[in-house]
Amino acid sequence: MLQLSVKGCLCLWGWAVWSSLGWAQAFPNRPIQLIVAAAPGGPSDVFARQLAIHLGRELGQPVVIDNRPGAVGTLAAEALLRMPPDGHALMMTWPGNATAKALMPRVSFDLTRDFVHITQLMAGANVLVAHPSHGFRSLDDVLDHARKHPDALTYASSGNGGSGHLAMELLKQRAGVAMVHVPYRGGAAALNDLIQGRVDLMFINQDAVIPHLQTGRLVALAISSGQRNPLFPKVPTVAESGFVGFEAVSWAGLSAPKGTPASVVERLRFAATRALTRPMRARQESMGAQVIGSSPEQFRDFVQAEVAKWTQLIHHAHIKTD
């Protein structure tokens, strides 16, 4: 009788393993939809399309981009939640998803509850840059001026609630200074006015400012990542400049609807990690981005920390979307 029980257990165990492998091998069985909260042609869309090519090769199925811009990423998130949780519909998660619930009064989803977070793909620092006419050479110069002349300095952003705006609000809060926010509809217009001297400062993604730093049209004062960036080795972090623990980065990851099977999540994580190897890694690093490829648990914890940090800041500063 004992022998039969052992055999029975072994048979059940073997069936479970076979079923799990069968499910993993059956996925994916059709093209995968990657929902992106950005319009075609922008930096996020370009990154997503590069990822789609390499991810599709790893999975053996095409990855099709579905652009859903608008409403701080809520249109993309809500579209994903209408999809079956089988791994064939994914979203490129970004900071807007982490701030949407705090910025907008009627958001129907909870980023920490309604999604499975597969992997963080990359992170990109924001660089604090100034027009050279002011003579600022460090973050201390800016803050000294701001303390002596409250609300005299203006800082641009790509829009209310964007990563550059939140980075500056976090700095203002930590430093106890007052500056005037000038929101634009997009980073290109904001950067152009900074170069023209119409505004004084801004935090902006590192890849956007490289050519302007090389020509001397802008001066880099600090970087918002936890460590210095290899493209700007002489530019200190904000944390190094007296604000321990300061970090405000742009990032991207992959998420799926809640209920997506663990075997499918692992298959996607493995494929995404392989997709981030060269030449995609080399391209991102050449623009100053950090390629990550974290585990689902690590990305889940990162998302929770981002939501908590920025929700607190947004409520404290009374920030609203445009």
Outline the structure in words.
The protein is of the alpha/beta class and 322 residues long. The protein has helices spanning 2-26, 43-59, 74-81, 95-103, 139-148, 163-175, 187-195, 206-214, 262-275, 280-286, 296-317; strands at 32-36, 63-67, 89-93, 115-130, 154-157, 180-183, 201-205, 219-223, 249-257, 290-291. The protein folds into two domains: 32-123 and 249-317, D-Maltodextrin-Binding Protein, domain 2 (3-Layer(aba) Sandwich), CATH 3.40.190.150; 125-223, 3-Layer(aba) Sandwich (D-Maltodextrin-Binding Protein, domain 2), CATH 3.40.190. Helix 2 (43-59) crosses helix 9 (262-275) and helix 4 (95-103) runs parallel beside helix 11 (296-317). Strands 1, 2, 3, 4, 5, 6, 7, 8, 9 and 10 form a ten-stranded mixed sheet that branches.
Q: Please state the average pLDDT score.
A: 90
Please report the first level of CATH classification, the CATH class of the largest domain: Alpha Beta
Percentage of helical residues? 40-55%
Query: What is the CATH homology-level superfamily of the largest domain?
Result: Bordetella uptake gene, domain 1
Rounded to an integer, what's the Rg over CA atoms? Answer: 22 Å
Order of helices and strands: HEHEHEHEHEHEHEHEEHHEH
Could you tell me the CATH topology label of the largest domain.
D-Maltodextrin-Binding Protein, domain 2
Beta fraction:
15-25%
Question: Which stretches are low in confidence, meaning pLDDT under 50 for 5 or more residues running?
Answer: 1-23
